[in-house]
Amino acid sequence: MTLQKKMTVRCPKCGEALDVEVWPSVNAEESPEAAERLRTGDLFLIRCPKCGNESMGNYSVLYTDRPHRRMIQYVAAETPEEENQSVLEYRAARLDMIAKLRETDPESATEFESIPYRIVLTLNDLREKAIIAASGLDDRYVELVKAYMLPAVRDMRPELGVAEIRFFEDEGKKLLVFLNGDGADVGSCDFDQESYDAFADGLVFKADDTDMIGPAWAKDVLATLFEKFSKGKEEKPEGKAE
After folding, report:
1. ∠ Cα 152 160 214 (to 5°)
2. Distance of CA 236 to CAs 61, 230, 231, 233, Å?
3. Domain extents for the chain?
4. Over the stretch 202-230, which tens digit does the pLDDT of each residue have?
5. Which secondary-structure segment (H or E) carries 82?
6. Residue 52 dihedral angles phi and psi, to the nearest 5°
């Protein structure tokens, strides 16, 4: 369900007390407008009426998109230690909820457990995962496409200083956006649907393999695939001469 509450924060620029809305949970099916604001980032935007300063609220939120079968938990933390502890706690809380549901409503427990669950550690990751889900794509194969393309983009356009690639959708058009080390948009291209389909057709992952799907995960998967491919070529027996 969607949960919304009010809290008071201080403007980081002038110190003015601001009453803001926070959303610990957003259900895309129940609250499509809030879900859209989450995907654009506007849901977290805080504007100070006194000095005009704009800042981004930073708090943990669970995003649920049942029509597209995705649950995404954003973990907000101030230190790596707090982040690691929070991730463990969210995982434990989810398993505890599933266990309790099994006792009272086994059917709902099965459905809840079957929805792919992701944990992300930045607001940009949350937004991207939500956009990917709304586009009807699987974030695992999207991450593989991004990881596959990144070295090629860097080689072809070194002057851009591309640090990362993000998935984006603009008026129904799927795009890959190139960002430099400062997070600035330095270019884009059409989403590589052909590579996505090739990964989706050729690779099968366990549903519960991991809940943290990102660039590091994709890089490891590609390295493993390349290693297996290389070994396969080395071990392939030579054909006999006719």
Report:
1. 55
2. 50, 10, 8, 5
3. 1-136, 137-233
4. 998 876 678 999 999 999 999 999 888 88
5. helix 80-104
6. 80, 5
